Amino acid sequence: MKKATPLKLVSLASVSLLMAACGDDTAQNGDEADLGEQLNFTITGIEPGAGITETSERALEEYENLQGWELETSSTAGMMGQIESAISNEEPIVVTGWTPHFKFEMYDLKFLEDPEGVYGDSEYVHTMSRIGFEEDLPEAYAILDNFSWEVEDMQGIMLEAQDIEFEEAASNWIEDNRDTVDSWTEGVAEVDGQSIEIGSFPWDSERASAQVMLQVLEEHGFDVTLTNVNPSILFQALAQGEVDATVAPWLPTTQGAFFEEYGENIVDMGPNMEGTVIGIVVPEYMDIDSIEDLPANE
């Protein structure tokens, strides 16, 4: 796994300080070649196993101007730290990004246009289950099948969870949105301790949805186990019947390849959220609007 290295961070900081000392404002309006050098021709990414990481690696191949660039993988927390540092100094930064995510609540950010369509259009988050789940646990299937919410709901939980535990943030959302939750469980009989395993991904967006679903199912009498794994492992586990259900997959782009591989042995219950977006993100103050505006590393 390739980590963000202190050397790169020192180099980026040194270049930024030198440009600032010379009175240069390239971060906002300067020469494109200077912008590339300030960024070390590097896009800041997240974990290697994330769907957006694989899509971004494909973007480096599809866009001629990006073929000399590097995608630096680290972690979501590491990416957020670099965003905070760059924005506090109005320095340039290019990151992989997606909504829902609380960074859009905290900072003025924008997606760069994607003329090649590598990142696709708006996506949907789907609910899926193993084959036979509906017959084995019909009450749980009914609740999961009814589950539907908005980008703002997930993003609100993610933002609140920066100050409190995700469990508490999810509980607060449930109490504040009881009518919505009741619409998921309406007409569904309560159970007495039936076991169910929910699979999810170890990222904040999915931590929000998984915690909400865990608590709603527990309120209805289920004994819930929550397992967080990378997408490839979750899709395989669903296909092999080792996990009961999930509310995490993003389609058609982010986890589309995994669904294509395992979908014949998985029940797709349909979208639970629409309007999600993935792509390349920069601060609003950067004077570029398209991935093609990023300078080639020649």
UniProtKB/TrEMBL annotation:
<keyword id="KW-0472">Membrane</keyword>
<feature type="domain" description="ABC-type glycine betaine transport system substrate-binding">
    <location>
        <begin position="34"/>
        <end position="175"/>
    </location>
</feature>
<protein>
    <submittedName>
        <fullName>Glycine betaine/proline transport system substrate-binding protein</fullName>
    </submittedName>
</protein>
<dbReference type="GO" id="GO:0043190">
    <property type="term" value="C:ATP-binding cassette (ABC) transporter complex"/>
</dbReference>
<keyword id="KW-1003">Cell membrane</keyword>
<dbReference type="InterPro" id="IPR007210">
    <property type="entry name" value="ABC_Gly_betaine_transp_sub-bd"/>
</dbReference>
<keyword id="KW-0732">Signal</keyword>
<keyword id="KW-0813">Transport</keyword>
<feature type="domain" description="ABC-type glycine betaine transport system substrate-binding">
    <location>
        <begin position="195"/>
        <end position="296"/>
    </location>
</feature>
<dbReference type="GO" id="GO:0015226">
    <property type="term" value="F:carnitine transmembrane transporter activity"/>
</dbReference>
<feature type="signal peptide">
    <location>
        <begin position="1"/>
        <end position="27"/>
    </location>
</feature>
<dbReference type="GO" id="GO:0015871">
    <property type="term" value="P:choline transport"/>
</dbReference>
<dbReference type="Pfam" id="PF04069">
    <property type="entry name" value="OpuAC"/>
</dbReference>
<dbReference type="GO" id="GO:0005275">
    <property type="term" value="F:amine transmembrane transporter activity"/>
</dbReference>
<dbReference type="GO" id="GO:0031460">
    <property type="term" value="P:glycine betaine transport"/>
</dbReference>
